[in-house]
Amino acid sequence: MKKHFPFIITVCFVFLSNYLYAQNKLYEIDQDSSSVWNLFKYDVNTTWHGVKHAFTKPVTWKGNDFAKLGALVAGTAALSLADESVNEFAQRQVSDFPSVVRDFGWYFGSPQNYFMANAGLYGFGLLTKNEKIRYTSVLIISSSVTTGFLQSLAKNAFGRARPGTDLGPYNFKLFSSEGGQHSFPSGHTVLSITMAHAIAKQFKNPWVKSGIYTIGAIPPISRLIDNAHWLTDIAFSAVVSIIVVDSIDAFLKRNNAYNLHHQKPKNISWNVTFSGNKIGLVGTF
User: Fold this and answer.
1) I need a surface site. Which of 41, 42, 95, 224 has the fewest CB within 10 A?
2) Separation of alpha carbons 269 and 283, rounded Å
């Protein structure tokens, strides 16, 4: 059930969008005078179009976009050289790592808890008619559905062995249904980084941003300590999550969703760089 959760959420939004508001494009409403029900229909429609944009964006890719994808894949492969050494280091920290932090990392990154937390955030924004909170929640859910579906599909397709199986980082059993063969990518990382990045983008204060990213980093780190993922599972997941959030965020602002015309979207050019056993995501403003 858990591994199909992102897919179920996606299907629900497809049907809700078609049932609640049969629109082929984003539309505008008066955010202040509209009823809660109309705001909800607007948010569902906006979420659906955000998801659709993320999945159809590759159709418009050009040479440079494919080059970046190739760099991400190559960088991940190069970083895999450090997987075993990082895993060994992480296992030496198990006895000293606070159990409360490990528990938080597990529960926060679990799909059910994650979506319930965002449902609470969205519910508050909807009932109070707070555009900023509703926008943030829509950005989180649309990005989460996209990244969650992709990671669920990739887990089954690649069938990479988890560290705890003692099969090594290069053991793959394609299209395996075994839980021990679902290491790549990291679902906990995908969800936690997606939420952290979406929320952090709403603040300008660097200290607030740092605090949000620190909390978002707990699930990925705890998964390393729990011997459930390799370093490359986490690094790849984090990069993909950031790219998806930024893509949907730019799409919503470009289409003036939530009256964000006064917030000019930043033009950021993302590039994946790697050297030796390091991989990095560089954004040029």
Assistant:
1) 95
2) 6
Is this model's pTM higher than 0.70 or not? yes
| Confidence band, pLDDT 50/70/90 cuts, at residue 23 | low
* Percent of residues, the chain, with pLDDT higher than 70: 82
> Which two structure tokens, joined as six digits, stand for 96?
């000293």
Q: Which residues pair with 172 in a beta bridge?
A: 160
Q: Where are the alpha helices (DSSP H) in 80-225?
A: 83-92, 99-109, 111-127, 131-158, 187-200, 206-225
Q: How far apart are CA 139 and CA 252, in angstroms?
A: 8
Which residues does 54 contact at the CB level (< 8 Å), separation at least 6? 142, 143, 146, 244, 247, 248, 251
Domain boundaries of the chain, sorted by first residue: 2-284
CA-based angle 45:49:51, to the nearest 5? Answer: 120
d(CA 43, CA 2): 25
Q: Report which of 225, 195, 224 is spatially closest to residue 212, judged by C-alpha positions.
A: 195
